[in-house]
């Protein structure tokens, strides 16, 4: 089984990297680009035999405690297969 | 309209950050974690009036030329709405 964890800044948090990319893309000739926000994702492969419930429970805990900074970031967990 | 671009190392490329996270998670008591690979994504908002075809064409070019390093990274474009 695999899980994917998306981590990104909360919408209230400024994303200077995203803003820099946005202005660069407009300079490069893409005026239709209105906004860019950057995030990261983690593809986590789990050993065989883990139930989907146990997988989601563990990955949610891992996302909250290790992969994301709950003060400025939000996360979302997807179980892939 | 919004597009999301996923950028990650090619599967043949070593991901030391992912490996470090994987071993740390196992140390923290998650033995079922078999592998971790990290990537980044970009949420790109486009101005109104851009056709899906033009949006995909521009975002694919942007992904290839700006957001990803084609030598070691691969990318995938999703048009969200």
UniProtKB/TrEMBL annotation, chains A, B:
Its main location: cytoplasm. It is an enzyme of class 6 (ligase). It is found in: Cytoplasm. The keyword rRNA processing does not apply. One of its GO terms (biological process) is 'de novo' IMP biosynthetic process. Keywords: ATP-binding, Cytoplasm, Ligase, Nucleotide-binding, Purine biosynthesis. PANTHER family: PHOSPHORIBOSYLFORMYLGLYCINAMIDINE SYNTHASE SUBUNIT PURS (PTHR34696). Part of the FGAM synthase complex composed of 1 PurL, 1 PurQ and 2 PurS subunits. This is Phosphoribosylformylglycinamidine synthase subunit PurS.
């Amino acid at each position: 089984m695999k899980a994917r964890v998306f981590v990104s800044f909360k919408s209230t948090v400024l994303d200077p990297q995203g803003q820099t990319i946005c202005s660069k893309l407009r300079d490069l000739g893409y005026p239709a680009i209105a906004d860019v926000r950057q995030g990261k994702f983690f593809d986590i492969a789990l050993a065989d035999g883990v139930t989907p419930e146990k997988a989601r429970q563990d990955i949610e805990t891992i996302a909250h405690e290790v992969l994301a900074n709950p003060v400025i970031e939000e996360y979302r967990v997807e179980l892939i297969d």
